[in-house]
Amino acid sequence: MNRYENLANVLSDRIEQGLYPAGIRLPSVRVLSSEHGVSVSTVQQAYRVLEEKQLVEARPKSGYFVKEARLQAALPSGCRPTQRPVEISQWDQVLELITSPHLPGFVQLGRGSPDVTAATLKPLSRLMGRAGQHQNLNAFHYDSIYGSEDLREQIARLMIDSGSHMDASNILITTGCHEALSIAIRSVCEHGDIVAVDSPSFHGAMQTLKGFGMKALEIPTDPVTGISLEALEMALEQWPIKAIQLTPNCNNPLGYNMPDDRKKSLLRLAQRYDIAIIEDDVYGELAYQYPRPATITSFDDDGRVLLCSSFSKTLAPGLRVGWIAPGRYHDRALHMKYITTGASATLPQIAIADFIKQGHYLQHMRRMRNQYQRNLCTMTDWVMKYFPCGTRVSRPQGGFLLWIELDERVDTQRLNRLLEEHFVQIAIGSIFSASGKYRNCLRINYAQPLAAKTERAVQQVGQMVSFMLESC
């Protein structure tokens, strides 16, 4: 971390511990400069970080003050205990979300897409162009089925922050995280097998299970600590589960970071029942805390965890560059890669590797984490302002997705139909369940710079929910 980030973390810890209570004036820039042996500009940068995190506010001619604690909505409730494996449904609703039009004036609140307009992505555009011009046509040939060695080495270095010390030779480049998950599932499961999933869960992984003729067993999930280990153990005793698929860091859609002790306990369960864990870490780099949370893979000593990720959420989805570290299933995963896409596109791999090597990636990540955390505060405030009383809201620890639970009388599929007449779309809750649960829930995205039209769209959603309740 830079010096200003270290100082910002120190001050943030003091605020959270109550050493600097709400409303109190914080030490002046010059006092902190002297106390910590840093420059005045370093202190000013640290205070700017705390302002972006909504922890402090600057008052003209008075200095910096700790902001009053923000009101928080109640957390979403957990789902009912698991009962039996089910065949996955909801494909039509997923297709509707992913094929929605990009029309002028249409506010898309449902997609899981990052902000691709940031200035810190401009070097990547230049590197893409340069790679095409100066690679002596190498970028137009098939790459190795393993993927670019340069990129795999850079990924291995990035994963050190997550506690994962892996060799580049253990990483396979894929066409996005979706292919990585597909490879992982087919490497450890067969048609008719049962896979335990956190619930609510990423709709893409569940639709992959559906496509391969597998069943999902939904495990209740806490919005703060993650998948219920008690319910999972009961399910493992009752059913012949082949694998556990989950997103423990910056979860989609709930946003939690699973505590390390629970990750270790989950791994011990998998070892006891000798099953694989398919870990989706696609949002892990976007955790608001530093260092970023550890992966389950970092605690794995027998190679049973298949770690999947991509640059779709950290950089841009259109790059279509992901990766998998399949552990003991490497040979099987390599074969699955060969029979799906073979080698992945070469040009974006070259550009991303250079983008990371030149230091642009870490700079971009710092900017986006700050932006997303700042946007989360704003979006949560809008939801509390415009939605009916009793609305429950998640508290993401990273990423850019907010999960909202409404009154049980609200059907979000019908809500979405009404909103489309006003050029607004949400992600309905039922697509995050294998069996169509969470019909009164929705997910919205807060990645883009929040403009007046976004606030109007959120207000429109809240007003429509109120209208539906009044009509009941």
From TrEMBL:
UniProt entry tagged with the keyword Nucleotide-binding: no
Molecular function terms from GO: DNA binding; DNA-binding transcription factor activity; pyridoxal phosphate binding; transaminase activity
Annotated CDD domains: AAT_like, WHTH_GntR
Gene3D superfamilies recorded: Aspartate Aminotransferase, domain 1, Type I PLP-dependent aspartate aminotransferase-like (Major domain), Winged helix-like DNA-binding domain superfamily/Winged helix DNA-binding domain
Presence of the UniProt keyword rRNA-binding in the record: no
Record-linked PROSITE patterns: HTH_GNTR
Sequence ranges assigned to domain HTH gntR-type in this UniProt record: 1-69
Keywords: Aminotransferase, DNA-binding, Pyridoxal phosphate, Transcription, Transcription regulation, Transferase
Family stated for the protein in its record: In the C-terminal section; belongs to the class-I pyridoxal-phosphate-dependent aminotransferase family.
Protein name per its UniProtKB record: GntR family transcriptional regulator
Species for this entry: Rahnella sikkimica
